[in-house]
Design a protein that fits this description.
CATH architecture of the largest domain: Alpha-Beta Barrel
Bound molecules: pyridoxal-5'-phosphate
Oligomer: single chain
Order of helices and strands: EEHEEEHHEEHEHEEEEHEHEEEHE
CATH superfamily of the largest domain: D-amino Acid Aminotransferase, subunit A, domain 2
Structural class: alpha+beta
Strand content: 25-35%
CATH class of the largest domain: Alpha Beta
Distance between the termini: 38 Å
Number of domains: 2
Helix content: 25-40%
């Protein structure tokens, strides 16, 4: 599948064409996965392109870099400004933005400290991550036989490329058995998350989601769902979730920048609820998308409007 990419790529402070955004295979990142990244959506709103929760994504990238002792030559504000500029220069109306921070070409060997740190910002057009029907009708998923990374192995709070080797195993196992996605358990057998999404369970009138200590990425969408669930008056509980709670839940859904809010209609071939997206999922999905797409008031200041000079000041 061809990438529907935007031509201009930001590299260490300069814009270069997509085809020149390349690295040498001897770069540290190729052998040792020393790369941190983000996935950010820019929505086509009535007031022009708007990046959803840009500041929070930038903060998570900087936190990932701190965990892995990677010092960036660019400040938070410079990165934020560069991403707005990326949208503007490419005249994008909507986009999926992929910031990358990686250890480049220099020394060989595991010790990363002698390799330069390269920063890239690129963007492409991306539709519905889990399929065109996913948001409307839900997806069929399985519990993976692969566990999420254990707490003292690879840090789950960092969005690092290395973690996505584990994600690939989960995703490939699911695909092999004709499921759209896999849900991983944590080291202790509690529910963790999907290969690229956080998870929420509606059970007995409350909404549950695993705590950060269950080896989950601190999802920006997860945080948005928590905020919106409380706004809607639902009780939201972060607690360990046993696997079997997935099977007896009234509703289960994924959250993620790419997946947005995707209902889950079956797990391990057991139907969730009545097999249709439930009322809580639908309400939160609509509330989330209406803010992200600029159809509702941006009361939490989640949107950065790229074509407005004031965008960067907020
Ligand atoms: C493993 C994993 N969990 C959760 C998420 C959801 O995070 P966010 O809502 O910030 O996109 C993602 C997506 O980036 C992910 O890759």
């Amino acid at each position: 599948m061809a990438v529907n990419y935007y031509e201009q790529v930001w590299h260490n402070g300069e814009f270069i064409p997509w085809d020149r955004a390349t690295i040498h295979v001897a770069s540290h990142v190729v052998s040792y996965a020393s790369c941190l990244f983000e996935g950010i959506r820019c929505y086509d709103t009535p007031n022009g392109p708007a990046i959803f929760r840009l500041k929070e994504h930038t903060d998570r990238l900087l936190n990932s870099a701190k965990i892995y002792r990677m010092e960036l030559a660019y400040s938070r504000d410079q990165l934020i400004q560069a991403m707005v500029e990326l949208i503007r220069i490419n005249r994008a109306q909507h986009a999926y933005i992929r910031p990358l921070v990686l250890r480049g070409y220099g020394a060989v060997g595991v010790n990363p400290l002698k390799n330069p740190i390269e920063v890239y910002l690129l963007a492409w057009q991306w539709g519905k991550y889990l399929g065109d029907d996913a948001l409307k009708h839900g997806v069929d998923v399985c519990v993976s036989s692969w566990r999420r990374v254990a707490p003292d192995t690879l840090p789950a709070m960092a969005k690092s490329a290395a973690n996505y080797m584990n994600a690939q195993l989960i995703q490939m196992e699911a695909a092999t058995h004709q499921y759209t996605e896999g849900i991983a358990l944590d080291l202790y057998g509690n529910v963790s998350e999907g290969s690229g999404e956080n998870i929420f369970v509606v059970y007995n009138g409350k909404i549950f989601t695993p705590p950060l200590a269950s080896s989950v990425l601190p999802g920006i969408t997860r945080d948005s769902v928590i905020t919106l669930a409380r706004e809607c008056g639902y009780e939201l509980v972060e607690q360990n979730i046993p696997r079997e709670m997935l099977y007896i839940a009234d509703e289960v859904f994924f959250s993620g920048t790419a997946a947005e809010i995707t209902p889950i209609r079956s797990i391990d071939r057991l139907v969730v609820g009545n097999g249709q997206p439930g009322p809580v999922t639908r309400r939160l999905q609509e509330r989330y998308l209406s803010i992200a797409q600029g159809r509702a008031e941006d009361k939490y200041g989640w949107l950065t409007f790229c074509n407005q000079p004031a965008a960067l000041a907020r």
